[in-house]
Amino acid sequence: MNPTFQRLTAWSLAVIAYAMAEVFHGNGFIAAFFGGLMLGTHTPIVRERIHEFGEAEGQQLALFVFLIFGLVAVPMVASYWDARACMYAILSLTVVRMLPVAVSLIGAKLDWQSIGLIGWFGPRGIASVLYLLMAVKDLGFAGHERIFSIIVLTVLLSVFLHGITAVPLSRQYAKRAAVNSN
């Protein structure tokens, strides 16, 4: 098989597993995950193709999901945003996320700058959008507009704040690590 098409097999397997689980009223996300586990990364060529997919097409798909998220979800819920929603979104990106990360790293013997950086850039990404879609699918949108609007606002703020701070904080961390290693 052509290497380009080999890279697409992981994507195809995920879509087929998701679709089949939905047909039988199962959880499509778990099925796609399990399908990936069953792909068999014990074969070096399969591992290489999946790695290539994760670097290129996987990143492109994630960016596409965020584009659609911004085009569809943000305009749908922006009218529900107020000062309380903004305050909660900021707390969610800081205390609500960073405190559990810090607690989980207590025994890791890391300095506070490392723990802060891990907490700030910690659990985030495309999974938040997927969890939102799962909640909308199971609960429906009507009657839950306020909750979904806060989730969308939190993800939107995360995209901007983590994007703006990624380079400067990484450079600052690298400089401090270089000074500490000498």
Secondary-structure map with pairings?
Elements: H1 3-23, H2 28-38, H3 44-55, H4 57-77, H5 83-93, H6 95-104, H7 112-121, H8 126-139, H9 145-181
Helix content range of the residues, please?
over 70%
SS summary, helix count: 9
Main beta sheet: strand number and arrangement?
A: none
Which series of helices and strands comes N to C?
HHHHHHHHH
Distance between the termini: 50 Å
Class by alpha and beta content:
mainly alpha
Mean pLDDT: 85
Number of strands: 0
Summarize it.
The chain is an all-alpha fold and 182 residues long. Helices cover 81% and strands 0% of the residues.
Question: What can you tell me about this protein's structure?
Answer:
The protein is mainly α and 182 residues long. It is 81% helix and 0% strand. It has nine helices and no strands. α1 (3-23) packs across α3 (44-55) and α5 (83-93) packs parallel to α6. The model has no long low-confidence stretch (mean pLDDT 85).
